[in-house]
Design goal:
This protein has 8 helices and no strands. It is mainly alpha-helical. It has a single domain, classed as MetI-like (MetI-like fold, Orthogonal Bundle), CATH 1.10.3720.10.
Length: 175
């Protein structure tokens, strides 16, 4: 619980430089910036994924604690089903619905919120292009960036709905 609280609380503009300082400068394990080799993806991925993973862990924990007190879980336990089947199939599948909601929203937020990480790690990305285009008043590029982010956000939300239908049979559409 405290690890996820730290993950949510630490901002990207602080975590990124601290990771660079520790893993790139002190230990010399990973490159400081750039995107030319596979190892250079590790620090930006950790920087972007820490808050998302912490939010998802907190949501999954809360959702599982709520689902584990349902009647169908007690019935499955009374029938003598193995714990991995109860928790893995019955509880987890029902607890994943709110987690999928948060995941879909957070992935869309990552598209627009990666600007700081792109600047810290010197990555040429859509967020950095958008900020530079706004500063130069290059409106067609700004419109194009916003269009790409919007289409990606809508696509992710559509995929989230498909995952809902896969997780919860009550949501499936019949013709």
């Amino acid at each position: 619980m405290s690890v996820s609280l730290v993950g949510v609380s630490v901002p990207n503009f602080w975590l990124g430089p601290m990771l660079i300082l520790f893993f790139s400068l002190w230990l010399a394990w990973l490159p400081v910036s750039g995107a030319d080799q596979p190892l250079s993806w590790i620090l930006p991925a950790i920087t972007l994924g820490t808050a998302l993973a912490a939010i998802l862990a907190r949501m999954l924990r809360a959702s599982l604690l709520e689902v584990l007190h349902e009647d169908y879980i007690r019935t499955a336990q009374a029938k003598g089903l193995p714990g991995r089947l109860i928790y893995g199939k019955h509880a987890l599948m029902n607890a994943l619905l709110p987690v999928v909601t948060i995941l879909g929203l957070q992935l869309g937020t990552l598209l627009g919120g990666a600007v700081i990480t792109e600047v810290v790690f010197d990555w040429p990305g859509l967020g950095q292009l958008l900020v530079e285009s706004i500063q130069r008043r290059d409106y067609p590029v700004v419109q194009g960036c916003i269009l790409v982010i919007s289409v990606a956000y809508i696509t992710i939300n559509g995929l989230t709905e498909l995952v809902y239908a896969w997780l919860d049979p009550r949501i499936r559409v019949t013709n």
